[in-house]
Design goal:
Radius of gyration: 20 Å
Helix content: 40-55%
Shape: elongated
CATH superfamily of the largest domain: HUPs
Strand content: 15-25%
Number of helices: 11
Oligomer: single chain
CATH class of the largest domain: Alpha Beta
Structural class: alpha/beta
Number of domains: 2
Amino acid sequence: MKTILAPTDFSEVSLNAVNYAAKMAGILGINLSLFHVCPVAMAYSDVPPPAFHFEETISNAEKQLKELKAKILSDSPKKIMIRTKVLTGDVVAGIRTYCETIDTYAVVMGAESTNAVDRFLFGGSTIEAIRSLSWPLIVVPSDVKFGRLHKIGLACDFRDVAGTVPVEEIRHLVKEFNAELHILHVHTSDRKTSEIENASATRWLHDQLGVLNPKYHFVKSEKIEESINNFADKNKLDMLIVTPKKHSIFNKILKTSKSRKIVLHAHVPVLSIHE
């Protein structure tokens, strides 16, 4: 059965994302996997860390996951199947490895720019992992609780839409929640699309997503990330979809620390679906 994977380091931010994932799994009637990675301690001398310390760390993590599972089940009005898993090593590699063993619906994680999640999201190798991740990734703001998705936004640069917009996943998500779909295109002076390109992209998107009755929004701005977040706030979006690719809005947002903070501090969950 489809499964939502919720990685956690047991911080408040990640636990909020776990609760978001649990409620989403309950609404969709799918499974939930609680997941933790114990990092391997680096040895700074010829003497490796005591093995029993590492074993204790793993044992404590397993205990915490079991307690978290019990709490979710006791608080959940709907019965859901929950599995727990502890791995060791690199977090991103662990997520990829575990996702390959289950029927992954999405990976759900918390957003916080000042601690481990910032390192998780924006470490050099991790950016590449997110860009190449085969499964949808939902980044949940620290103060957002799961509710019905009434309005879903899609940030689109209107370039090579046929090859980069995951229409099947978007159709499925919007229909599952009977939501409105808002398609946003932000154009800047240095990456301005022509009227012909806009018309062609809009026509293709409407052919593919027309059954969802999407609403189109065109914004001219030099501040892409701020415009996206302002749009999400103004239109009261419940989720924003982005599609990471080599030359995309999301890729541009990831380039500066200021932009990263804006994304991590967005007021709505961001769903990243790889092209």
